[in-house]
Protein backbone atom coordinates (compact mmCIF):
# COMPACT_ATOMS: atom_id res chain seq x y z
CA UNK A 1 0.00 0.00 0.00
CA UNK A 2 1.24 3.51 -0.70
CA UNK A 3 2.79 5.79 1.86
CA UNK A 4 0.75 8.80 3.08
CA UNK A 5 0.60 11.64 0.58
CA UNK A 6 2.90 14.62 0.89
CA UNK A 7 1.44 18.13 1.09
CA UNK A 8 2.35 18.63 -2.58
CA UNK A 9 0.34 15.53 -3.50
CA UNK A 10 -2.60 16.74 -1.42
CA UNK A 11 -2.65 20.02 -3.32
CA UNK A 12 -2.46 18.35 -6.72
CA UNK A 13 -5.94 18.08 -8.27
CA UNK A 14 -6.92 14.51 -9.05
CA UNK A 15 -9.68 11.94 -8.74
CA UNK A 16 -10.60 10.83 -5.20
CA UNK A 17 -12.62 7.66 -4.62
CA UNK A 18 -14.10 6.59 -1.30
CA UNK A 19 -13.97 2.91 -0.29
CA UNK A 20 -15.46 0.95 2.59
CA UNK A 21 -14.82 -2.66 1.64
CA UNK A 22 -18.12 -3.13 -0.20
CA UNK A 23 -18.67 -4.39 -3.72
CA UNK A 24 -20.20 -1.01 -4.53
CA UNK A 25 -17.00 0.76 -3.54
CA UNK A 26 -14.92 -1.47 -5.82
CA UNK A 27 -17.29 -0.64 -8.68
CA UNK A 28 -16.58 3.02 -7.90
CA UNK A 29 -12.83 2.33 -8.01
CA UNK A 30 -13.11 0.72 -11.45
CA UNK A 31 -15.07 3.70 -12.75
CA UNK A 32 -12.66 6.17 -11.14
CA UNK A 33 -9.65 4.52 -12.79
CA UNK A 34 -11.09 5.26 -16.23
CA UNK A 35 -11.79 8.87 -15.30
CA UNK A 36 -8.32 9.41 -13.84
CA UNK A 37 -6.69 7.85 -16.89
CA UNK A 38 -8.66 10.01 -19.33
CA UNK A 39 -7.97 13.14 -17.29
CA UNK A 40 -4.29 12.18 -16.91
CA UNK A 41 -4.74 12.78 -13.21
CA UNK A 42 -3.66 10.82 -10.12
CA UNK A 43 -6.11 8.54 -8.32
CA UNK A 44 -6.41 8.77 -4.54
CA UNK A 45 -8.23 5.94 -2.71
CA UNK A 46 -9.63 7.04 0.64
CA UNK A 47 -11.09 5.03 3.53
CA UNK A 48 -12.57 7.07 6.35
CA UNK A 49 -13.49 5.12 9.50
CA UNK A 50 -12.96 5.89 13.22
CA UNK A 51 -11.70 2.54 14.47
CA UNK A 52 -10.96 2.19 18.18
CA UNK A 53 -7.64 3.78 19.15
CA UNK A 54 -4.82 1.27 18.97
CA UNK A 55 -7.09 -1.41 17.56
CA UNK A 56 -5.07 -3.96 15.62
CA UNK A 57 -8.30 -5.31 14.15
CA UNK A 58 -9.20 -1.87 12.84
CA UNK A 59 -5.72 -1.35 11.43
CA UNK A 60 -5.82 -4.70 9.62
CA UNK A 61 -9.30 -3.98 8.27
CA UNK A 62 -8.24 -0.58 6.93
CA UNK A 63 -5.17 -2.09 5.28
CA UNK A 64 -7.24 -4.89 3.78
CA UNK A 65 -9.87 -2.51 2.38
CA UNK A 66 -7.29 -0.19 0.86
CA UNK A 67 -5.15 -3.08 -0.38
CA UNK A 68 -8.02 -4.67 -2.28
CA UNK A 69 -9.04 -1.34 -3.78
CA UNK A 70 -5.44 -0.59 -4.79
CA UNK A 71 -5.13 -4.04 -6.41
CA UNK A 72 -8.31 -3.50 -8.42
CA UNK A 73 -7.08 -0.13 -9.66
CA UNK A 74 -3.55 -1.30 -10.39
CA UNK A 75 -4.71 -4.32 -12.39
CA UNK A 76 -6.83 -2.06 -14.59
CA UNK A 77 -4.04 0.46 -15.22
CA UNK A 78 -0.58 -0.19 -13.73
CA UNK A 79 0.71 3.09 -15.21
CA UNK A 80 -1.70 5.21 -13.17
CA UNK A 81 -0.39 7.19 -10.21
CA UNK A 82 -2.31 5.69 -7.26
CA UNK A 83 -2.19 6.64 -3.59
CA UNK A 84 -4.16 5.36 -0.60
CA UNK A 85 -5.13 6.85 2.73
CA UNK A 86 -7.00 5.88 5.89
CA UNK A 87 -8.34 8.63 8.13
CA UNK A 88 -9.76 8.19 11.64
CA UNK A 89 -12.71 10.41 10.83
CA UNK A 90 -16.09 9.16 9.52
CA UNK A 91 -16.49 8.73 5.78
CA UNK A 92 -18.49 11.88 5.01
CA UNK A 93 -16.17 14.52 6.56
CA UNK A 94 -13.11 12.64 5.28
CA UNK A 95 -14.41 12.68 1.71
CA UNK A 96 -15.53 16.31 1.90
CA UNK A 97 -12.10 17.32 3.15
CA UNK A 98 -10.40 15.46 0.30
CA UNK A 99 -12.80 17.08 -2.18
CA UNK A 100 -11.29 20.49 -1.40
CA UNK A 101 -8.34 19.64 -3.65
CA UNK A 102 -9.94 17.24 -6.12
CA UNK A 103 -11.13 17.47 -9.70
CA UNK A 104 -13.72 14.80 -9.01
CA UNK A 105 -14.98 12.85 -5.99
CA UNK A 106 -16.27 9.33 -6.72
CA UNK A 107 -18.49 7.18 -4.48
CA UNK A 108 -20.45 3.99 -5.02
CA UNK A 109 -24.16 3.52 -4.44
CA UNK A 110 -26.58 0.63 -4.74
CA UNK A 111 -30.18 -0.12 -3.93
CA UNK A 112 -29.70 0.16 -0.18
CA UNK A 113 -31.26 -3.24 0.51
CA UNK A 114 -28.55 -4.62 2.82
CA UNK A 115 -27.35 -2.85 6.02
CA UNK A 116 -23.94 -2.11 4.50
CA UNK A 117 -25.53 -0.65 1.39
CA UNK A 118 -27.76 1.60 3.49
CA UNK A 119 -24.62 3.26 4.90
CA UNK A 120 -23.06 3.63 1.44
CA UNK A 121 -26.37 5.04 0.21
CA UNK A 122 -26.38 7.65 2.99
CA UNK A 123 -22.75 8.73 2.46
CA UNK A 124 -23.30 9.12 -1.28
CA UNK A 125 -26.26 11.42 -0.74
CA UNK A 126 -24.50 13.44 1.96
CA UNK A 127 -21.35 14.18 -0.02
CA UNK A 128 -23.32 14.84 -3.22
CA UNK A 129 -25.14 17.71 -1.56
CA UNK A 130 -22.13 19.29 0.11
CA UNK A 131 -18.99 18.68 -1.94
CA UNK A 132 -17.10 21.68 -3.35
CA UNK A 133 -16.11 19.62 -6.40
CA UNK A 134 -18.31 17.51 -8.69
CA UNK A 135 -19.36 14.15 -7.19
CA UNK A 136 -19.75 11.04 -9.34
CA UNK A 137 -22.18 8.54 -7.82
CA UNK A 138 -21.44 5.21 -9.50
CA UNK A 139 -24.51 3.04 -9.71
CA UNK A 140 -26.52 1.07 -12.21
CA UNK A 141 -25.05 0.28 -15.61
CA UNK A 142 -21.60 1.83 -15.60
CA UNK A 143 -20.30 -0.07 -18.65
CA UNK A 144 -22.51 1.83 -21.10
CA UNK A 145 -21.71 1.89 -24.82
CA UNK A 146 -19.02 4.43 -25.62
CA UNK A 147 -21.33 6.24 -28.05
CA UNK A 148 -24.04 6.76 -25.43
CA UNK A 149 -24.39 10.49 -24.65
CA UNK A 150 -23.94 12.55 -21.53
CA UNK A 151 -27.39 13.64 -20.36
CA UNK A 152 -27.51 16.96 -18.50
CA UNK A 153 -30.63 18.23 -16.80
CA UNK A 154 -31.06 21.99 -17.18
CA UNK A 155 -33.52 24.28 -15.44
CA UNK A 156 -32.04 27.40 -17.04
CA UNK A 157 -28.60 27.77 -18.71
CA UNK A 158 -28.07 30.98 -16.75
CA UNK A 159 -28.25 29.13 -13.41
CA UNK A 160 -26.92 25.73 -14.51
CA UNK A 161 -23.58 26.93 -15.84
CA UNK A 162 -21.52 24.53 -13.70
CA UNK A 163 -23.54 21.46 -14.71
CA UNK A 164 -23.27 22.37 -18.40
CA UNK A 165 -19.52 22.93 -18.04
CA UNK A 166 -19.07 19.48 -16.51
CA UNK A 167 -21.28 17.79 -19.12
CA UNK A 168 -19.48 19.34 -22.09
CA UNK A 169 -16.04 18.72 -20.61
CA UNK A 170 -16.91 15.10 -19.93
CA UNK A 171 -18.22 14.61 -23.46
CA UNK A 172 -15.05 16.15 -24.86
CA UNK A 173 -12.87 13.92 -22.67
CA UNK A 174 -14.78 10.79 -23.73
CA UNK A 175 -15.14 12.00 -27.33
CA UNK A 176 -18.89 11.73 -27.02
CA UNK A 177 -21.96 13.92 -27.32
CA UNK A 178 -24.30 15.83 -25.02
CA UNK A 179 -28.07 15.73 -24.67
CA UNK A 180 -29.43 18.80 -22.86
CA UNK A 181 -32.83 18.14 -21.32
CA UNK A 182 -35.26 20.67 -19.88
CA UNK A 183 -38.49 19.39 -18.36
CA UNK A 184 -41.31 21.79 -17.55
CA UNK A 185 -43.98 24.06 -18.94
CA UNK A 186 -41.59 26.89 -19.78
CA UNK A 187 -38.77 26.78 -22.34
CA UNK A 188 -35.51 28.56 -21.45
CA UNK A 189 -33.89 26.89 -24.46
CA UNK A 190 -35.81 28.78 -27.14
CA UNK A 191 -33.74 28.52 -30.27
CA UNK A 192 -32.53 25.01 -29.45
CA UNK A 193 -28.78 24.52 -29.75
CA UNK A 194 -28.33 28.25 -30.43
CA UNK A 195 -29.28 28.90 -26.79
CA UNK A 196 -26.14 27.01 -25.78
CA UNK A 197 -23.72 29.13 -27.81
CA UNK A 198 -21.34 29.78 -24.86
CA UNK A 199 -20.70 26.02 -24.73
CA UNK A 200 -20.93 25.08 -28.40
CA UNK A 201 -18.37 27.76 -29.23
CA UNK A 202 -15.94 26.49 -26.58
CA UNK A 203 -16.53 22.82 -27.41
CA UNK A 204 -17.03 22.86 -31.19
CA UNK A 205 -16.23 19.15 -31.55
CA UNK A 206 -18.96 18.02 -29.13
CA UNK A 207 -22.27 17.18 -30.87
CA UNK A 208 -25.28 18.57 -28.99
CA UNK A 209 -28.97 17.70 -28.93
CA UNK A 210 -31.59 19.74 -27.07
CA UNK A 211 -34.79 18.19 -25.71
CA UNK A 212 -37.61 20.16 -24.11
CA UNK A 213 -40.47 18.09 -22.66
CA UNK A 214 -43.59 19.08 -20.75
CA UNK A 215 -43.12 16.58 -17.95
CA UNK A 216 -41.94 16.55 -14.37
CA UNK A 217 -38.12 16.65 -14.22
CA UNK A 218 -37.51 13.38 -12.35
CA UNK A 219 -39.43 10.97 -14.60
CA UNK A 220 -38.18 12.82 -17.70
CA UNK A 221 -34.53 12.53 -16.63
CA UNK A 222 -34.86 8.90 -15.55
CA UNK A 223 -36.52 7.94 -18.84
CA UNK A 224 -33.82 9.67 -20.88
CA UNK A 225 -31.05 8.20 -18.70
CA UNK A 226 -31.82 4.72 -20.04
CA UNK A 227 -30.12 5.75 -23.30
CA UNK A 228 -27.27 7.69 -21.64
CA UNK A 229 -23.75 6.86 -20.45
CA UNK A 230 -23.86 9.44 -17.65
CA UNK A 231 -26.29 11.92 -16.11
CA UNK A 232 -25.18 15.36 -14.91
CA UNK A 233 -27.36 17.41 -12.57
CA UNK A 234 -26.90 20.53 -10.47
CA UNK A 235 -27.08 20.25 -6.69
CA UNK A 236 -29.73 22.94 -6.33
CA UNK A 237 -33.45 22.56 -6.75
CA UNK A 238 -35.63 24.41 -9.22
CA UNK A 239 -35.93 28.19 -9.11
CA UNK A 240 -37.31 28.76 -5.59
CA UNK A 241 -35.67 31.81 -3.96
CA UNK A 242 -34.32 29.80 -1.02
CA UNK A 243 -33.33 26.59 -2.78
CA UNK A 244 -31.87 23.76 -0.73
CA UNK A 245 -28.26 22.93 -1.54
CA UNK A 246 -29.23 19.46 -2.72
CA UNK A 247 -32.56 19.75 -4.54
CA UNK A 248 -35.28 17.13 -4.57
CA UNK A 249 -34.83 16.50 -8.31
CA UNK A 250 -31.11 15.82 -8.00
CA UNK A 251 -31.59 13.60 -4.96
CA UNK A 252 -34.27 11.54 -6.70
CA UNK A 253 -32.12 11.11 -9.82
CA UNK A 254 -29.14 10.00 -7.73
CA UNK A 255 -31.31 7.44 -5.92
CA UNK A 256 -32.90 5.94 -9.02
CA UNK A 257 -30.71 6.54 -12.07
CA UNK A 258 -29.87 3.46 -14.18
CA UNK A 259 -26.40 4.93 -14.91
CA UNK A 260 -23.78 6.92 -12.96
CA UNK A 261 -24.68 10.48 -11.96
CA UNK A 262 -22.40 13.49 -11.50
CA UNK A 263 -23.80 16.07 -9.10
CA UNK A 264 -22.36 19.58 -9.49
CA UNK A 265 -22.38 22.32 -6.90
CA UNK A 266 -23.16 25.59 -8.73
CA UNK A 267 -20.21 27.21 -6.94
CA UNK A 268 -17.97 24.89 -8.96
CA UNK A 269 -18.59 27.21 -11.93
CA UNK A 270 -15.61 29.27 -10.81
CA UNK A 271 -13.18 26.38 -11.17
CA UNK A 272 -14.80 24.82 -14.21
CA UNK A 273 -15.09 27.95 -16.30
CA UNK A 274 -12.41 26.98 -18.78
CA UNK A 275 -12.79 24.14 -21.29
CA UNK A 276 -10.78 21.02 -20.67
CA UNK A 277 -7.59 20.63 -22.65
CA UNK A 278 -5.74 17.42 -23.37
CA UNK A 279 -2.58 17.25 -21.24
CA UNK A 280 0.64 16.43 -23.00
CA UNK A 281 2.52 14.71 -20.20
CA UNK A 282 1.88 11.07 -19.40
CA UNK A 283 1.01 9.94 -15.90
CA UNK A 284 3.83 8.49 -13.87
CA UNK A 285 3.72 4.83 -12.89
CA UNK A 286 1.97 4.06 -9.61
CA UNK A 287 4.15 3.49 -6.55
CA UNK A 288 4.74 -0.08 -5.49
CA UNK A 289 2.65 -1.45 -2.65
CA UNK A 290 4.18 -1.60 0.77
Structure description:
With 290 residues, the chain is of the alpha/beta class. Helices cover 36% and strands 17% of the residues. It has 9 helices and 10 strands. It has helices spanning 7-10, 23-39, 56-76, 91-99, 115-130, 161-174, 197-202, 217-225, 248-256; strands at residues 15-18, 43-48, 82-87, 104-108, 135-138, 150-153, 178-183, 208-213, 230-234, 261-264. A 10-stranded mixed beta sheet has the order 3-2-1-4-5-10-9-6-7-8, sandwiched between helices. The longest helix has 21 residues, at 56-76. The termini are close together. The model is unreliable at 1-8, 112-118, 237-245 and 269-290 (pLDDT under 50).
- Unreliable residue runs: 1-8, 112-118, 237-245, 269-290
The spatial strand order of the largest sheet comes to: 3-2-1-4-5-10-9-6-7-8
Report the end-to-end length measured between terminal Cα atoms: 5 Å
Q: How many beta-strand runs?
A: 10
Largest sheet: 10 strands, mixed
Helix-and-strand structural type: alpha/beta
Order of H and E elements: HEHEHEHEHEEHEHEHEHE
Strand content: 15-25%
Shape: elongated
Radius of gyration: 19 Å
Count of helical stretches:
9
Helical content stands at: 25-40%
Mean pLDDT, to the nearest integer, reads: 83
